[in-house]
Amino acid sequence: MVTKVPPRPAPLRRAARLLTAAGVLAASLVAVPAAAHAARPAQAAQAARADDKPARTTLTVAVSQSVDSLSPFLAQKLVSTSIHRLAYEYLTNYDVKDARPIPGLATAWKTSPDKLTWTYTIRKDSLWSDGKPATAEDAAWTFNKMMTDPNAATANGSFTANFEKVTAPDPQTLVIKLKKPQATMTALDVPIVPKHVWEKVTDFSKFNNDRQFPIVGNGPFVITDFKVDQYIKLEPNRKFWRGAPKFDELVFKYYKDGDAAVAALQKGEVSFVPNLTPAQAAALKKHDDIKVNDAPGRRFFALATNPGARAKDGRTFGNGHKALLDPEVRKALFLAVDRTTLVDKVFQGHAVEGEGYIPPRFGSYFWKPAEGQKRSYDPAGAARVLDAAGYRVNGEGKRVGKDGRPLDFRILCHATDPNDKAVGKYLQEWWGKLGIGLKVECLDSVSDPWVKGDYDLAFDGWSVNPDPDYVLSIHTCGTLPATPKDTGATDNFICDREFDALYAQQAVEYDAAKRAEIVKRMQSRLYDTGYMNVLAYPNALEAYRTDQIGSITTMPEAAGNLWGQDGYWSWWSAVPAAQTSDGGSGGGSSAGVVTGIGAAVVAVVAIGIFFALRRRTSADDRE
Q1: H-helix or E-strand containing 251?
Q2: In a 3-state reduction of DSSP, which class is residue 14?
Q3: Are strands 92-94 and 58-63 parallel, antiparallel or unpaired?
Q4: Are the beta carbons of 7 and 237 closer than 8 angstroms?
Q5: Angle CA(609)–CA(464)–CA(6) in degrees, nearest 5?
Q6: Which of 77, 201, 475, 613 gives 622 a disulfide partner, CB atoms 3.0 to 4.6 angstroms apart?
């Protein structure tokens, strides 16, 4: 199905990029003055006609995830990076149908025969929201700052680590010289910032870009206000080259509780809610003015083990259980996990059983373990593995190691994610039968103990884009923190030389098929080490009010998601119901949103779109 959107000043083209963590989101179109937020668009339109004045439309998105930073150089959470997608342009964007690279700030690009020099043509019609032109000099300054200041490379340093030199010989030409070939040069997911604003910043480690509004950008929206754990407000960038969004205001409103966001959707106070539970989705399907979107997901839900937190300087830290350093213990734990039950009982069929690191939605990179390699549910086998490794059951029924220490583990759980809690209960039951104890520690924010290495296991998950470079990079030795006091880009301190060697190979391989095979070998290695156990690939389960949103673009168009897209397409394309032909009667929902979509997937082969959902405060906050 294809989304229908009113014509734009420029051709409607689509993008791709992300992360899924617990950002419960809802989009509320309020077509009334601020003092009357509960009014419906149709009612507001009548009032507007009475006053001969157009009603102000506001699209409110409820999020349950805290913003880590409004600085594009520091932000790693999904909600933050999603907002940056709206506020800043990237060199390239991604087509909504097949995720192929399309123009963004750059209108064209070419490479030298040796693939070491890339030249980008920068568009002439991109303006910063303060009226100044966006040029190649802004892009060169952004990249050079990341190359020379480690603090500026905090969030996206992996994109520029292989850059040797970046120059802007003229306002419309950007030249990037590489140390070695890099297969992701059409997917540099780095927000380009205005040099004339950011060159005044003295300490990139502390500047959060949240003191002076409006924030200068060149994306479809301009950030106008922000209050921690309350809201972020944006307005259309009337100077945006692709055309301004249709809503007068976009608000991301903080909801700590997902049920509260759903209740707000039912009342008409918000328009869109993602990350629904199956029970919530079932209830919302009965509502006349609410449409449920159940699409193949772009993220995985996994169990991560602490492999021994360490820094690049060789020092170890944290208090992870030493038994988890034993691959036999990790193997036994995973043999005692019934993925089929989790899909059926926890996700109630709105997920696919987990296997490799990359979801089946990304067909060219999707990997499945071989028959003899696969660790299927086998609790008896798990007990035999532990027995053979010397972990015996004592007189109290507790499994203990050779040192007499019981196998009692802790698992970090996101308090805002009901899936974490439900899966935790199953793990307690299954592992308890092996004599292994498990304490489920549910926190509003798991970032602090995770970064400190103060955990044994953790529920992990990343939203995945068609190009695997970023999400694979977070398991390389180079992303470890420099010292125990620093914070690296690592996901959970994995450092495996064999994995690193394969990562280096795929990074320079331009042949798509050959690169895909290397990526699959990387997933095989990650599977065998047992540090990451992918449990499921959840569907994108979300809902919106058809009497408030007249049309909106999913990605992919045929069977895709709205929240957490690889670009700004959903919010940029959203049209108030009052402005569609049906006048908001409930029949003007996006044709690109499909209720109850099964496993139909667009297989994306194109190289160039990164993973982005970075850190881990909830189920969909990785990028």
Answers
A1: strand 249-254
A2: coil
A3: unpaired
A4: no
A5: 65
A6: 613
Helix (H), strand (E) at residue 333: helix 327-335
Q: How far is CA 120 from the centre of its chain?
A: 27
Token couple for 414: 């996101």
Q: What is the DSSP string of 49-72?
A: HHHTSPPPPEEEEEE-S----S-T
Average pLDDT, the chain: 85
Nearest in space to 531 (alpha carbons), one of 298, 315, 326, 301? 326
pLDDT digits (tens, 9 = 90+) for 6-31: 333 333 322 333 333 333 333 333 33
CA–CA separation, 556 vs 602, rounded Å? Answer: 7
Place of tokens 């993220």: 299
Token pair of 40 as six digits: 């419906």
- pLDDT at residue 623 tops 70: no
Q: What does the block give as tokens for 469? A: 């470079």
d(C-alpha 538, C-alpha 527), whole Å: 19
Spell out the long-range contacts of 120-123 with Cβ–Cβ below 8 A and sequence spacing 24 or more.
120/91, 120/173, 120/174, 120/175, 120/176, 121/172, 121/173, 122/171, 122/172, 122/173, 122/174, 123/172, 123/241
**pLDDT surpasses 90 at 45:** no
pLDDT confidence tier of residue 585, bands split at 50, 70 and 90: very low
Strands 532-538 and 540-545: unpaired
Query: What's the longest Cα–Cα distance across the chain?
Result: 82
Cα–Cα distance, 327 to 308 (Å, whole number): 12
pLDDT for res 8: 34
